[in-house]
Design goal:
Tetracycline Repressor, domain 2; 2 domains; mainly alpha; disordered N terminus
Length: 217
């Protein structure tokens, strides 16, 4: 199956045009609402397909809901613009790289457009707790996202900009965890500036170069 017009990537886990049409229709109808509100009859009408097609591809309503959650999470992951990582690769000093990392965390938790993305991801992660198939799919997608961040960290290590001993993969997971954790706490602690005053130093601390006196001889 080829990519859609406009550069959108094909659905890697959907194997037919009709299955893609059903999932796309479901996502259009749901918008930001949880998948529990999905109405099969409306989806079939919007996708111009039949009940038998739905059961053939997804088995039942729950199978469709799982496919919809997978695709929703995949699209949210793809929405993370890799171009935002360019400043990390272009940084030439420790200060520039740390500023890049801080800016990305600040964007993640203060950009109004990103708030919706974080909330949708949070809902998918919550749904995955009770769905082993969805959990596995989310694990794969999350792993890809961590890898992208870890690559930037490893590049900075190779160029001597940050602590050479920092675990890039663990740092990537921590950075993502901070952003998602903010999603789960912002309702009870809305002061994002106070949150950042603690989160930013905690995030940057593992990256800082050791003092010259502690550097290897």
């Amino acid at each position: 199956m080829s990519a859609k017009a406009g550069g959108e990537q094909p659905h890697p886990f959907l194997r037919s045009v009709s299955a893609v049409a059903i999932v796309d229709a479901a996502l259009r109808l749901l918008g930001d609402r949880p998948v529990s509100e999905l109405k099969v009859e409306e989806v079939l009408f919007a996708a111009h397909t039949s009940t038998s097609s739905l059961y053939h591809h997804f088995g039942n309503r729950q199978g469709l809901c799982t496919a919809v959650e997978k695709e929703r999470f995949r699209r949210l992951a793809l929405a993370e613009d890799r171009a935002r990582l360019a400043d990390g690769y272009e940084a030439s000093t420790e200060a520039e790289f740390l500023a890049f990392v801080e800016a990305n965390l600040r964007r993640a938790v203060t950009d109004p457009a990103n708030a919706e993305v974080r909330q949708q991801r949070f809902r998918v992660l919550a749904a995955a707790l009770d769905d082993s198939d969805l959990t596995e799919r989310v694990r794969i997608i999350q792993g890809t996202m961590y890898h992208v961040i870890a690559e930037v960290i490893e590049d900075a290590k190779r160029r001597g900009l940050i602590n050479p001993d920092v675990d890039a993969a663990a740092f990537a997971a921590m950075m993502h965890g901070l952003a998602m954790g903010r999603t789960g706490t912002e309702a009870i602690f809305p002061d994002v500036d106070r949150w950042l005053s603690v989160a930013v130093p905690a995030l940057l601390a593992p990256l800082r170069l050791p003092p010259a006196s502690d550097a290897p001889a």
